[in-house]
Amino acid sequence: MATLGRILVWLGDAASWCGSHIASAAAGVWNLLSGLLQPILSPLLGVTNPPVTWLADVYYSMFDGAPPAVGLIVTSVLTGVVMLIAFRYTSNQAGIARVKDTIKAELLAIKLYKDDLGVMFRSQGRLIGATFKLQWYMLKPLMIMLLPMLLLLAQMGSRYQQRPLRVDEATLVRLETAGQDATLSADGMIVEVGPIAGDDDVAWRVRAVAVGDHDVRVQIGDQTVSKTLSVGRVGEPVSVVRPAKRWTTRLLHPREKPIGESANVASITIDYPESDSWVYGSDWWVLTFFVVSMATAILLKPVFRVKF
Amino acid sequence: MNLKRLILCVVAAFVMATLGSCRDQRKAATDKKVVIIGFDGMDPRLCIELMDVGRMPNLNRMRQAGGFKPLGTSIPPQSPVAWSNFITGAGPGVHGIFDFIHRDPTQQVRPYYSAAETHESEEGWHVGDHTIPLTFPPFNHNPTQTLLRREGKPFWDFLDEAGIETRIYDIPANYPPSESKHGHMCCLSGMGVPDLLGSYGTYQVFSEGVVREVEEGGGMRKPLTFRDGAADAEITGPMNTAMNKPRPATIPMRIFRDTKQDATRIDVQDQSILLKRGEWSDWLQVKFELEMPSFMPNSHASGIVRFYLQEVSPTYRLYMTPVNIDPTDPGEQRVSEPPDFVATIADDLGLFYTAGFQEDHKALSNEVFTDAEYHRQAEHVLTERLNLLDHAMDTYETGLLFFYFSSTDLQSHMYWWRTDAKHPTRSVTDARRYNAVIEKLYERMDEVVGRVVEEYGDNSTILVMSDHGFCNFRRQFNLNTWLRETGYIQPRGASGILSPSINWTRTKAYGLGLNGLYLNLAGRERDGIVTPPERDALMDELTTKLLAVRDPLDNRPVIKRVYRREEVYQGPFVEHAPDLIIGYHRDFRASWATTLGDMADAVITDNDSAWSADHCIAADEVPGVVFSNRRIAHDAPALIDIAPTVLAEFGLSVPESMTGSNIFETHATLAEK
Ligand SMILES: [Zn+2]
Description:
The structure holds 2 protein chains of 2 kinds.
Chain A: H1 2-60, H2 68-90, H3 93-112, H4 117-160, E1 170-177, E2 182-186, E3 189-197, E4 202-208, E5 212-220, E6 223-231, E7 241-243, H5 247-252, E8 265-270, H6 284-300
Chain B: H1 3-19, E1 33-39, H2 44-52, H3 57-64, E2 68-71, H4 79-88, H5 92-95, E3 101-104, E4 110-113, E5 116-119, E6 125-127, E7 130-132, E8 145-148, H6 155-161, E9 166-171, E10 185-189, E11 203-207, E12 214-216, E13 219-223, E14 230-240, E15 247-258, E16 263-268, E17 271-276, E18 284-290, E19 299-305, E20 307-311, E21 317-320, E22 324-325, E23 336-337, H7 341-349, H8 361-365, H9 371-395, E24 399-405, H10 407-415, H11 428-456, E25 461-465, E26 471-477, H12 479-485, E27 509-512, E28 516-519, H13 532-547, E29 559-564, H14 565-568, E30 580-584, E31 587-590, H15 592-595, E32 604-606, E33 613-614, E34 624-628, H16 642-649, H17 667-672
Parallel strand pairs in B: 1-24, 1-25, 9-10, 9-24, 11-13, 26-31
Antiparallel strand pairs in B: 2-34, 3-4, 5-8, 6-7, 10-23, 11-21, 12-13, 14-15, 15-16, 16-17, 18-19, 19-22, 20-21, 25-34, 26-32, 26-33, 27-28, 28-30, 29-30
Helix pairs in contact in B: 10-11
Bound molecules: zinc ion (ZN).
């Protein structure tokens, strides 16, 4: 028992050592990649975000007055259908059919010749190869669908992850800046305390007093940067962050125009409360979306004669 | 029906099918409603005084209709004992709770909390710095478990068996909650529930001017040093018992101070809080990580805290509530029956105090809080409980609803002062001012009763009751010092019954707990010397001497009654009781030192604590109250009569384990039956 314990601890230490190195390596790769993508994606998102947001708003206006879950379910079903059709035309359907046949054949071979080790191993090998090939065929449509999917998820996130403030509710406004003195003003809310600087940002505590979309204005030196604050409009989208030039922030928070470079501000954030609902509340909506859209795609596979 | 409901229903159906839960839709066995509001420590004398001048109109209406009597309390009148009487419909001989503190005579006098005990898991598997309990097959060791020590069958078990829906909120002396075998009982445990640290409430104060971390009964003070306006601190969490050398899990915290704005910022686990001086934060969830060996995932415990910024400059002081068990994520801590009952409440209400002692009286006693600050914190507790009552009433349909308020007890302990004598910590005007807080509180509790009557009035039975009354606590009696002075504890230089200075081979009796006096009995106590034939005579002798004790200050008698256990208890657990139970006169109580067996220099001293009122005295001096919207026929109802009354209201017969009787029937009619 004691020896087993020592071995397990040793293995565990080794695994966590490897894990932390892999994680830091992955982070390095990501930083590099993100840096390379910054000059491409940041301006691209600057161009795509406004029309996509406009489209999403027009689309979601259909669900005005309906419970949030309706819009979420309908959108998930439609996404399932669109994914299916897109997959059909962007994937190598003939290739997929061939690989699936191979898989079936090899599975049969394994069953029939289970006493013949040679055949077994060869079939096993081919099976693994075929599985990889199937993954490979999936990759191209996945890459093509990735960006539209992310744009869609960002739009959905602004509707389901958080909710607008309620009147009389307090929250924090945070400003990521390079340390100048800043002042905050707005209609529809009162600034109760702040700014107080933390290690990474400067924060104010504000309390909502009136329903509506208000302009929060931050004065830094001679520059004024503003940000929308949504109060009391249940079901309306919220913009948690007004991004600056970082493409990741632009991708996740598409609703507001990026802050100009001269302002020396990396982002303005409002800590909206998370929505609480089992279907569309914080993080649940992602699960609902994937389950419903995948179920739709699987159910309609024969209808559209798609193979995957 | 929206989709959220639909999914909820499917999930609920699963839970029901497997566990048989509260949201059972089976037809209720009865349409009858019985609502009990329990006010801990509500005093009949003060009630009468306030009713007489029209300040408690709702309760007065019940009184005028014959629905008011003082309610006989338990011997001794301590809350865990009294509520156990209520729960079992029988005395301590049946439920086995005789005091806050019991002792194990086989280890001579090892003291322990009477209400619950923690069983450590069997020796686990030593792996590196850790010891892993082997609670899984094939080892199946018992995990570390806290078990309820209260014996006897609670009255709700009989309701549960009969299919009567029962909802119980914040009941004392029921932690961990007893199980509902038939799925008709939901219970949120009250007094007795620990905080996440396993204590009965440990606040944490982060403060400048503290040299090093200090633990003081009920809290910790932690030093802060600001550099460039920022300081680092750690929130102390639960013990990681999987470590060979157990140490508490901690959470780092960054504190920023802004003296110009008289405000602070607290950054903890990706959350920030901004507070001005004098402000309380909302509840904040904090997740403690309990480190396990590297090949296992770490375990987690979720707690909730609120911060209160007391001062920014010159001396920064930040108070943090005890880390309460997170009601939305109680983990392995069972604070309700069924275990997810607490989470369903939190889904509706948000976060709330789950620990048994919610009013932080220790912060006041230790001078972390001023009188006004304690009052404000106690108000938070009351507000939360009133919201919980709303929730309870919204979800209650038929059967029994029991709801408990601690405010009437824990505010009275600190603010009750119905005399012109000097208060231990307050000026005369302040003592009067804060005593008025209690009167105001009684008025508000009367309004609560008004709401309940309005909601359920005519077609239900309403009972409003308390477990005991109240009185001033001015002078403290050092029982063990008295026993030493009178020669029953030896030698003369002994400093406490837990100290090695005591000589057990020459000691005949000792005091422990708030009212207990034990003989050092041969064959029972490990080092016992009093032989059974000597026992009776010794008890007579002690009783006579105790009743003769006078306060040297004004020659008043100190002790009103000395009860012999054989005379006041019946049942299977009488053997565990103290041999003698001391019932003090009003104004007196066992000293703080006595409760844990310590001694002071003088036998009788002033009470110097902000805890300036009490009830652990002679039972006939501090009865509780019982009000009802029905006539109370019983001449002298007592706590043990409530459970039989509830069963009778639902048409159930009173089981033999209960010694009480229905308060709506006279003794004469009961005798006929
Ligand atoms: Zn009390």
